[in-house]
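Retro notes - structure team

What went well: the batch runner handled both jobs without manual restarts.
What didn't: labels got mixed up in the shared folder, which is why I'm recording both outputs here explicitly, each with its sequence directly above its tokens.

Job 1
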Amino acid sequence: MPDSLSVSSWASSLERDTAPTSPELSTILSFDGDRKKKPTKTKRKQLCACDSCRLRRVKCVREPGESICVECQKKGIACTSIYVSNKLPKTARAGKRIHQARVLYGEQRTDSFGLSDSDTGISMPSESASMLASHLLDVYSSTVHARFPFVDFARLHMEFEGANRNVAEMGDSEALCVVVQAVAARYSDSASIIGEGPRLSSLSGHESISLAQYGLARETFVDLMGSRAMRIIDSKGTMHTPSIENVCALFLLQNLIENAPTPGRRHKARHYSAALIEMLRALAETSAVADSISTAEGDTQARLEREARFVSNGQAFCHVLLHDALQAAYFGRPCQLSSSDISFFCPWLVTTDLAQVRADIANNGRPPTLTCAATIFGSVAMLARAFCEQVSGPVARRDGGLKIEFIRSFYEEADQCFTFFEICQLRWRELYPDFRVAFDTWIRTCNFCLAALVAVTDEMLIRVAANRRASGASESDPVTIELDDLILESAARTFAFSRYAAKALQNNDFDPACTPLGGDVCICLVRFARHVLKTPLAHEGGPSDYTAAERTALATQFLDGLKKLGWQRGEAGEHVEALTAEIEAIDFPHYEEHQLAAPLLSSDTLPDLFSLELNLDANHGEAQEERDSYFPNMPFPNFSSFAYDATSADSHDIYQQTDQVSPDQLPRLSLTIPNLIQFDDNDSTPRVPWPAQGLEDTYRSQDAQETYSRIQDWTSLCSIPGMETIEHHSPIDQLDLDGDYFESSHPYDY
């Protein structure tokens, strides 16, 4: 179809040219959801006043064939309204609906298959409806299916091909296919959805680039695809017809709605969530009656047996259970699944000690796959349900009072789950190679959700403590003291989980948008980032291994995660800007320009490593570990990358790449651990100087002479008398060291 055709001209010929081959396209553009032609009734013609006339409450007169009313013509203003002439020919019915869509969704919004006004800059789609539908199914298979494996995608794709790629001819699977396409639209890089531009494959590896512009470009398409899915589900009675396909369709639809950047999305999604749970119950009741399966014949018996397997394997129920529990705990609403539901679908979750099961799985052999999967989801789900019941749920909030003992037990259980998941990730990649991606995804999802819940608990404790102080509670009050202790414990635990969340974001198979957090996932990432930014560093009393370099790295990891989320979600761009400003505003600590009190060590306790020069080929990791055992929590400078020895093979290799001078002319730049320890001539007790301000500049100096001068300045600031910091055996100004030789990313190695 030529790109030069206007939207209206294409739409007016839609039924004539495309209806026979692409009936799903006209279905998408339909806003009434009716497929059967209803008898027309003669109605009195009713004109709609334009926005201006309605606002001024004057009569709006529009001459036949005119798009601007008389009043607006007089005033010379734009005439906007939802007026659509009833005299349009029948062949232009689709064009009328496109006009309605533009009015309802905005002039800049595209229709359901990428059609747009000429001023949007998005060209007409080059793909036909069936080609785009096939493309979306492929996208779902490669990006989403591993996260929700209970959807029988192979069967769905076979039915799609069997219907000649005509979604409207897929029968009972039509609703599922439409929802699958709508979900996949958030990941597609089709020009019909996001417009012309680079594809996602060309953007991979560039995490520093914000992709929010693509998320914003796709919102219209995803919105209309979601509307189409809801219309089809309502018109076909999907919520009242129990089947495997309809269970999957409702689960994916609630996920799609929760990820929409619209207010009230969670309340709308709960409507479909409730229908999903009722449908699961109906399927379970049918499969529980053995006679109904054995006495059935043909296709009916095969369908009932398939439904019984679907219910018994528990995959769908585990996902529904986790989703319901996390939504309830995170947002403070009642759980929709009852205890009797859990007892019916997965009774061992109620009767079994999950802590013991986790210990057995971690220590013994190869447990069944379903047992492992159910343990992963069940551990977090049951913990979240308890949290909702005791802390965040409506009943707990009504009763009032913070149950500190439960918070402590909640943290202990969270720690056990975290340890269990870490073991699973290490072992199950080898034990279950066929399910490696699925297990990794499930574990990261559950741990990420658990981390989000821990972070919310930390904020809740801080608010409770602030409210108590505002109400006049004494600092010596036992509850206040206990609450302050719990806040310190909570901060440390939240930091540990934030570290894990940052690590999870590095895995390309993990998508935080597929977690039960829905549209709040961006806020969750910002919450993690802010926590790592406010956590004190090691020398400030924070975690003993927390450095300024790691703080920046963790915050940047969350920032990059937000930038990548922009590919799916346009609103991520606002969070990226806010978090970027917070990271840039960090006031990194500078050390005082005077020698601080240094710890004293006996000379006979110094290990041999302090008499060794650290060359490029030295095992710095072991040296650092042993050194840290003697100097805990000391911000010690790492000079290992400065140690260049002409006899070192590594030095030769690096030097030969420079082509500046021969290896025998390479000066010997040696920085050794003894250089960092000051021995007085009359005293065998060494003193360890504290690094001074400006040391970080030393690491990136590209001139050897400047490096020498700066280190000498540092030595002077630290008051180290009688020590030669740099020993050189040839003129140091003969070599211009390139900055790339300095391998350390940060001057302080804690």
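Job 2
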Amino acid sequence: MLSCSPRPPPSVVSRVLKDTGRTVVVRGQGVANGEGHSGAAVCIFDCYGADPLANLPKGKAGLARFVQVDEETCLIDLTVEGLSPGKHGVHIHESGDISNGWKSTGEHFNPTNVPHGDLHHGHLGDLGNVEVDENGWGDLIIESDRIKVWDVIGRSIVITEKEDDLLPSSTDGHSGDGLLCGIIARSAGAFENTKIVCASSTFIVTFKNDTPDEIIEQQIENAKASGAEIVHRYNSAIKGFSVKVPDESVSALSLASPHVEAIEADGEVSTQGRSLLTSN
């Protein structure tokens, strides 16, 4: 266990630990007074390749978590896998329309109409760069007093092929085409939301990174036994599976488990394992 005094920001702790050569994963986010956060969101990235118009998503390639710690501070924890080594631009775009990949997500989110720039002075959607190592793994932890979770839900995040120069000389920092993108969806805290689903809904169930494979396989078998169809198994940037649940099987399906990190369904995310109920 690591104890820090005085309390530095999570981004500082993460950077110091990474400088020692260790892998750092932020797990568990909250506030000191125990009253919970002011809002949360999750964005799961799909890989669209070089030409998003020509191909459907090729698989999950990472995720970003947003937690509004208080009225002034938003914590963003982003992880990606499979990109080329080096820096890649990270931007919140104004639209959550990914029907044509990143090309249909619009411009950078810029409600204050300022020039492009860095995290502190540019577009509200300018999040800087994520640095990817030689193994294709990259992470980024940001604390922002400009971004509010409730302003970005329903928008999208795009990660680009090149580094963002963070300068006001262009609209996108010369960061090139998008490689990964995803919709920012509302996330409920533990026991704050029970997901109500419609007939034949599809869920993406993600597990904590240290979850043994046999536990995930057991959850898959349980889902099959309840009448659900496993659409895909993820085992790279995220661990988990997507499952299609017909109306007549929803009441029999339960994904309650301490190993489940999030359940994404119909544009909404419920964190912590949850039993799933049919809608009226």
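One thing worth noting from job 2: The mean pLDDT is 75.
We'll revisit the folder naming next retro.
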